[in-house]
Amino acid sequence: MKIDWEALGSVFGVSLFATVALVALFTLGLVGLSKHEAATEQGGSATLARSGAYLCFALVAVAVSYGIYLIVA
């Protein structure tokens, strides 16, 4: 049995990048929601922060759905 190390390294690299990107997007979403909460407590309105947070969460959901689609199909 021969292991294709180049293919294994490629899969590892893409998986690592995708994982870091999804965690970063989710974190940005949480930061956006916390900024919105802080602004509302001070009497302001941070609709841009809330919209950005929802956009980040939507992108995470799309990426996860696409990953599940790739696994199932």
Task: List its salient traits.
single chain; 73 residues; mainly alpha; 2 helices; elongated
Topology:
Layout: H1 5-41, H2 47-72
Helicity range = over 70%
Molecular shape: elongated
The N- and C-terminal alpha carbons lie at a distance of 28 Å
Which sequence of SSEs, written as H and E, runs from N to C? HH
The unreliable regions are none
Keywords: Membrane, Transmembrane, Transmembrane helix
Protein name: Secreted protein
Transmembrane segments: 7-31, 51-72
3D architecture notes:
The chain crosses the membrane at residues 7-31, 51-72. It comes from Streptomyces virginiae (Streptomyces cinnamonensis). This protein has helices at 5-41, 47-72. By secondary structure, it is mainly α. Helix 1 (5-41) runs antiparallel to helix 2 (47-72).
